[in-house]
Specification:
14% strand, 40% helix, 16 helices, 12 strands, 366 residues, four-stranded mixed beta sheet, alpha/beta
Length: 366
């Protein structure tokens, strides 16, 4: 049973007030949400069949669709590619004029068409059949031209568009997108796609920074302020002077390069507050923080940022498995790169909770 849209009618000269516009927008979202809920209950073994077919695909998943369905298809192809399944979009009209050469042995086709009768899509079916490319169809009916040609059909059923005229693709394209996301993400989980894989495909932007390794984002040792055990505070300050923005701490190393301690600007300020300048000629290791908190260069930047935030640190030394200093994570460097502090890598997140609402709440006034 499909959700029945509540049309918003008005004459050409009648303007909707703000409350009416908000109500109408909420109604569109409510109708689409109801349609998705019902679709999630209707789809069954065909979902598993589609995922299994993709899981055993030796090539790429070729996604095709025309118009709004094609735009949704582009997003599905991008999601598949970013979560471990090679995939690209094939425009059905361009395919009929030579781009079918992109389909190779081992590929399968994911075709989107609400009616299942879209001419640009159906005209490809004989060629795809000849190529031996199996087809997964997202369409309203199994009995449509596309549905009959497909090996697996993910039926949308009868959907009423949320448009007041019942014409503009809205509910149907939302449903297609949701099915594409469901298939892509379950396929990714089935293949054991991990945070490391995700990071490899998302090296740029905020997402890439969340998943980056400390080694990729830290300030390397050559750019850090470093002193040796036995040096005086004065010697360390002079020796660590360097051009550019300095870090707020000096890493104190032993003869083998292992981290012995950390001397921060706050430690220096406390010495100066005593007004005893003789302390500047005292070995720095007498004032440093011994056994400071450190992090491995193999850890993720989200872990480093979490330590900085939880411990209220400004600097976090980076050491290798032998305890040798290799760099430093400075909070100002982190902020300048816009690293997100409240996001954990995918593997650190608990399983997503699914909230189930009572049917009368979901379908109230539906």
């Amino acid at each position: 049973m499909s959700a029945q849209p509540t049309p918003v009618t008005r004459t050409a000269n009648q303007q909707l007030g703000t409350p009416q516009r908000i109500a109408a927008a909420r109604e569109v979202m409510r109708l689409e949400a109801i349609a998705l809920w019902k679709l999630s209950q209707q789809l069954g073994e065909e979902l598993g069949d589609a995922i299994a077919l993709m899981e055993h695909c030796a090539g790429s998943v070729i996604v095709t669709g025309m118009g709004k369905a094609g735009l949704v298809g582009r997003k599905i192809a991008a999601t598949l590619a970013s979560t471990g399944q090679p995939s690209h979009f094939l425009h059905p009209a361009e395919a009929f004029h030579g781009d079918l050469g992109r389909v190779r042995d081992g590929d399968l086709v994911l075709a989107l068409s609400q009616s299942g009768e879209t001419a640009e899509v159906t005209q490809l079916l004989p060629s795809l059949r000849e190529m031996g490319a199996p087809i997964i169809a997202i369409t309203a009916s199994r009995q449509s031209t596309l549905g009959l040609a497909a090996r697996v059909v993910l039926p949308l059923g009868q959907l009423d568009e949320a448009c007041s005229l019942g014409l503009a693709p809205s509910t149907s394209t939302t449903a297609m997108l949701a099915i594409g996301d469901a298939v892509a993400l379950v396929l990714s989980a089935a293949r054991g796609f991990a945070a490391e894989d995700f990071a490899r495909f998302h090296p740029g932007g905020a997402l890439g920074r969340k998943l980056a390794r400390v080694a990729d984002e830290m300030r390397p040792l050559a750019e850090c302020r470093v002193a040796r055990v036995g040096q005086t505070v004065r010697e360390a300050i002079v020796a660590t002077s360097r051009p550019g923005r300095r870090t707020g701490a000096v890493m104190v190393l032993d003869a083998e390069g292992r981290l012995a301690g950390l001397f921060t600007d706050s430690d220096l300020a406390r010495l100066l507050e005593t007004r005893d300048l003789a302390t500047l000629d005292t070995p720095i290791d007498q004032f440093m923080v011994r056994d400071p908190t450190t992090i491995s260069p193999r850890e993720r930047m989200t872990d480093a940022v979490r330590v900085l935030a939880d411990r209220k640190f400004s600097e976090l030394p980076v050491v290798d498995t032998e305890g040798r200093a290799v760099g430093l994570v400075d909070v100002t460097d982190v902020l300048s790169r816009d690293t997100v502090t409240d996001a954990a890598p995918p593997t650190a997140k608990p399983p997503a909770a699914i909230r189930l609402f009572a049917a009368e709440d979901v379908f109230a006034a539906g």
